[in-house]
Hints:
- The structure holds two protein chains of two kinds.
- Chain A is mainly alpha-helical.
- Chain A has one domain.
- Helices cover about 60% and strands about 5% of the residues of chain A.
- In chain A, helix 1 (about 10-25) packs antiparallel against helix 2.
- By secondary structure, chain B is α/β, with parallel strands linked by helices.
- Chain B folds into four domains: about 10-105, CATH 2.40.50.140; about 130-265, Response regulator (Rossmann fold), CATH 3.40.50; about 270-325; about 335-365, no CATH class.
- Chain B contains ten helices and 13 strands.
- Chain B has helices spanning about 1-10, 15-30, 105-125, 150-165, 180-195, 220-230, 245-250, 260-265, 270-330, 330-335; strands spanning about 35-45, 50-55, 60-70, 80-90, 95-105, 140-145, 170-175, 200-205, 235-240, 255, 340-345, 350-355, 360-365.
- In chain B, the strands form three sheets. Chain B has a five-stranded mixed β-barrel.
- The mean pLDDT of chain B is about 90.
- The interface of A and B includes residues 16, 24, 37, 41 and 48 of A.
- Strand 1 (about 55-60) of chain A pairs parallel with strand 7 (about 170-175) of chain B.
Amino acid sequence: MSKNDSKSVSQKMNELSELVAWFESDEFELELAIEKYKVAEQLAGEIGKDLSELKNEITVLKTKFDA
Amino acid sequence: MQRNMTEHVHEVPLFGVSDYIAVLNQTLEYTYPSVEIEGEVASFKVNQGKWVFFDLKDADGSLGCFMSLFNLRVPIEDGMKVVVRATPKVTAWGKFSLTVQSIRPSGEGSLKKSFELLKAKLDKEGLFAPERKRTLPEIPAHIAVISSTQAAGYADFVKILNERWGGLKVDVAHVQVQGEGAPEQIIRAIKYFNGQEVLPEVLVIIRGGGSVDDLAAFNDEPLVREIAVSRIPTLVGVGHEVDVSLADMAADVRAATPSNAAQIVVPDRKEFAGSLRFLVQRILARMSGLIDERAKEAQDALRHAWTLLDARAELLLSQLVTNRQVLSAYDPRAVLARGYAIVRGEATVGSSITVEQHKRTITAEVTNVEER
C-alpha cells in the first residue's frame, strides 16, 4: 500500500507541481534528482489511476428555496 | 303591486360608503385574488424613490396601477407592452386601481427594450467590467450547482461532468429556473452557498434552452446583482450558444450551454492524464539535459586540466633541454673532444704522468720542468 493512498487527487497534484517547480528551479541538485524523479513518476501514475477510478459525489440539497 | 315594490325596496342592501368599498374589495378579492393583465404602459413614474404609478392601457381602456419599487425587477418605460400580476382594488376615494405584485415585459420588442435598458444601467455601474472577472480554479475539489434537477440542461451537465472528471464534491440546489418565482429562488440558493462556512470553489448556475420568455428570469435585476456580488466565483451557462442573458454577463465566466459549463469547470481526465505524462517526460528531459550539461562541464574541466598539464610539461621539457645544453658546455669530455688534454701526476723530472685525451690516455715521463 502506497503512503499516497490516503491523499486526494488535489494533494497529489500539488505535490507533483512542487516537484516540477523544484526541477525547473535553481535549487535543482543532480544528486537528489533521481529520487525526486521517482516520486514524481509514481505520483503521476497514481493520479492517472485515481482519475480513471474516482466518481463524483453529487448531493442534491434537501433545503427548499421556494420560500 | 305597491306592496311588492315596497318589499323589493327593502331587499336592496344599504351600506355606508366605507363599508361598501370594503364589500367591493372583498368581492373583488374573492373573485380575482390575483389576475394577470396585459397592456401597454403609460404615464410611468416613481414617487419618493419608493412607489411606482403607471397606467395600463389598450385601444379601448385604461387602468391605474400602483406597486412598490421593491417589486419592480425589470426596467419599464412608457410604450412597453407588459403583463402585470395584480390584485384589483377600490381605494378609499373610490378610485379603481390595480395593486401590482409583479410586472414582466411581454412580446419580443418589450423584452428586448427592457433587456437593453437594464444592460445599459448595470454596465454603467461596472457590473460587467472585465476587471471584475475572477478566474476559476483549474481543478476544483468542491463545486455548487444551482439548477432544476428535472431539466435536460442539468442532466447534460451531470453527464459531461462525470465523463470528464472524478472525485469532485458537488452540492446541488434544486430551484425553479423559469417563471415568476425563479429569480428569487436562485437568489436564495446563491445566498445559501455564499453563507456556508466552507465555501464551494465555483458556483455553477445552469439552465437549458428555451424561449426568450423562458429565459427572462436570468435578466432579473436583483438576480444579476446577486451574481455580481457572489463571494464564490460564478460560472453561468443559460440556454444555447446564441442566448445571452444579463446573468451571463455578470458572471465571472460565461458558458455557452450547460454542457459547456461542465467542460469549463473541470478538465478532461484523459487529456489530463496525457498532460501528466508530458509533465513527467519534461522532468526527465530536464534531468537528462542537466546531466549532459554537467558531463560537458566535467569534460571541459578535464580538457582544461590536460591543456594546463601539457603546457607545464612543455615548459619543463624546454627547461630540461636548456639545462642539458648548459651542462654539456661544462662537460670535460667536450673540452677533450676539442683537442685539449688533462694531465695528471707530479710535475717533477723523472715522475710519471698520465695525459688523458679525447680518445686515449698516455702515460709519460717528465724529462724537463721549466718555470715561467
